[in-house]
């Protein structure tokens, strides 16, 4: 492990703790004496993503995080929710036990999780992923989202944050 401050290749581990999906290690550089933290995760290899055009590339959790972060930009998303979403998708992909997974499968998993996390982020991601051709495609997606949006675990007597789209003064 190279020191991020001086680049020296030797460090000693001063503390190790279990962390979400990996190990968090506190290290001290043997050259400059500065301390830094590393997070180590088990990297499962061997799963390739088959793109629409037939290309294949190694599955990348980081690409999922980057895409979801872009969709969630300037949204009030809880800390760690994007990483948790990426963990769920990574687990689902590796649980298939296949060497190749279609990109469409991963995209649908991302959209399913985003729909539960944040509707605006979902629409942003869907607009890029599904490459809406015009406003009609976007309207259809919005209608499908609205029709399928349920408020699980919320008492019926509780007022919603969003008014009904029927134009009445009633709330969902």
Structure description:
With 172 residues, the chain is α+β, with helices and mostly antiparallel strands. It folds into 2 domains: 31 residues, no CATH class; 101 residues. It has 5 helices and 6 strands. The longest helix is centred in the middle third of the chain and has 15 residues. It is elongated.
Helix content: 25-40%
| Biggest sheet architecture | 3 strands, antiparallel
Q: Main sheet: which strands, in order across?
A: 1-2-3
Number of strands: 6
The residue-averaged pLDDT reads 82
Helix and strand composition category: alpha+beta
Distance between the termini: 54 Å
Sheet-strand content, in percent, reads 15-25%
How large is the radius of gyration? 21 Å
Q: Given the C-alpha coordinates, what overall shape results?
A: elongated
SS element count, helices: 5
- Count of separate structural domains: 2
Q: Write down the secondary-structure element order.
A: EEEEEHHEHHH
Oligomer: single chain
Instruction: Return residue spans where pLDDT drops below 50 for at least 5 consecutive residues.
Output: 150-172
């Amino acid at each position: 492990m190279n020191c991020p401050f001086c680049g020296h290749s030797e460090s000693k581990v001063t503390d190790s703790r279990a962390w979400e999906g990996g190990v968090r290690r506190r290290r001290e550089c043997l050259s400059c004496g500065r301390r830094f933290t590393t997070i180590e995760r088990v990297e499962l290899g061997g799963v390739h993503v088959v793109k629409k055009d037939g290309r294949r590339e190694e599955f990348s959790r980081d690409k999922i995080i980057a895409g979801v972060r872009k969709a969630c930009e300037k949204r009030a998303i809880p800390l760690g929710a994007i990483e948790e979403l990426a963990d769920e998708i990574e687990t689902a992909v590796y649980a298939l036990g296949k060497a190749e997974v279609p990109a469409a499968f991963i995209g649908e998993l991302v959209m399913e999780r985003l729909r539960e996390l944040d509707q605006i982020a979902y629409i942003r991601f869907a607009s890029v992923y599904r490459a809406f051709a015009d406003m009609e495609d976007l309207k259809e997606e919005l209608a499908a989202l609205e029709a399928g949006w349920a408020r699980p675990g919320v008492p019926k007597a509780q007022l919603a944050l969003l008014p009904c789209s029927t134009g009445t003064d009633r709330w969902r």
